[in-house]
Design goal:
Largest sheet: 2 strands, parallel
Order of helices and strands: HHHEHHHEHHHHEHHHHHHHEH
Distance between the termini: 58 Å
Shape: globular
Number of domains: 2
Strand content: under 5%
Helix content: 55-70%
Radius of gyration: 21 Å
Number of helices: 18
Number of strands: 4
Bound molecules: zinc ion
Length: about 325
């Protein structure tokens, strides 16, 4: 029984002074609740308690002034960025949110864990909100539209508002069938904490076994976890914010989505956002060979070794709608 249910059962909530503000926010946080019915609440208020983890993660990056740097720590941060970026783009986005290919239950779980390690909550929460974004793109009910709610809201603040904290279960019934995914979603801080501990252990090992590497547990924690995670977080968030503001529009979609090569470079191909909004059902988002889409190339390679299959193509009728021509 979770804390909130216990308090309700024992009438602690009713008999005590009603919980408000940060205490209520903490209680719901501990409950990790979800919404079974469509949420249309148009709330654009920052829940300050939920800004605390973001602030802590950002401030932890300043630890670099104490721990310094080494090629191995920066290299690990680099790898941790791209591996987790691929888990987010290839699986959280193109698989869990849009089902653009098929895979086995084991591979699905593996990439759900890797995506969870990106500290962007669980796969059901991520996909539930993303499906909502496609259904309400740039309308007032879109949870992260820079056009409707401004840049900072669309980039980061939307995550801290109370209606956006629970998992939108009504949007992800297909994924909720898997208890292992629900577990990851419910306890979405376990994997990130394990990653942080693993980074510290790796740094300690390298530092003692190979002193010439010039690294340490704390240095590896700062680079491999904090800096890598924060850069990854903002890289991903640019697709919610900047890719609805800057770039070219190939398709006349109802929203303000844009194609932007710079965003494609930092997000492994997600910057072809106008393509994606026009036809979200394809495994590729760069619709032409010159639209750099490494997530698609990696998915293609995984299909050659049988780890994924049935990558959905871009239909010919979509190319026919291209107003800019090939
Ligand atoms: Zn979008
Ligand atoms: Zn999408």
């Amino acid at each position: 029984m979770d804390l909130l249910t216990f308090m309700e059962h024992t009438n602690i909530v009713d008999n005590a002074r009603p919980l408000k503000g940060w205490r209520l926010a903490l209680l719901h946080w501990s409950k990790g609740d979800h919404n079974d019915d469509e949420v249309t609440e148009d709330c654009h208020q920052v829940d300050w308690v939920r800004l605390v983890p973001f602030a802590v993660l950002h401030l932890s990056c300043l630890g670099v002034f104490w721990v310094g740097w080494s090629p191995v720590a920066v290299g690990v941060a680099f790898v941790a960025y791209w591996v987790r970026m691929f888990a987010i783009t290839g699986f959280y986005h193109r698989y869990f949110s849009h089902r653009t290919f098929k895979t086995s239950r084991a591979v699905q779980f593996l990439f759900a864990v890797l995506g969870n390690a990106a500290v962007q909550r669980g796969p059901l929460w991520w996909a539930g909100h993303h499906r909502h974004h496609h259904r309400h793109s740039d309308a007032a009910s879109d949870v992260h539209s820079p056009k409707a709610h401004g840049f900072w809201w669309s980039h980061i603040l939307w995550i801290t508002s109370r209606p956006n904290f629970p998992t939108r279960l009504y949007n992800v019934r297909d994924l909720a069938r898997f208890p292992e995914l629900r577990f990851l979603d419910r306890f979405d801080t376990i994997v990130p904490i394990l990653l942080a501990v693993a980074m510290y252990a790796l740094g300690e090992y390298c530092g003692s076994r190979f002193p010439e590497s010039g690294t340490s547990g704390w240095q590896m924690l700062v680079w491999g976890f904090f800096i890598s995670t924060i850069v990854l977080f903002h890289g991903t968030c640019t697709i919610n914010s900047l890719s609805h503001l800057f770039g070219r529009r190939r398709f006349a979609t109802q929203d303000h989505s844009r194609n932007n090569i710079w965003l494609a470079l930092i997000t492994m191909g997600e910057g072809w956002h106008n393509n994606h909004h026009y036809y979200p059902g394809a495994a590729r988002q760069g619709f032409y060979w010159w639209e750099f889409d490494p997530t698609y190339y990696l998915l293609k390679m995984l299909s050659w070794i049988g780890l994924v299959r049935d990558l959905r193509p871009v239909p010919k009728r979509v190319y026919d709608q291209d107003v800019s021509g090939p």
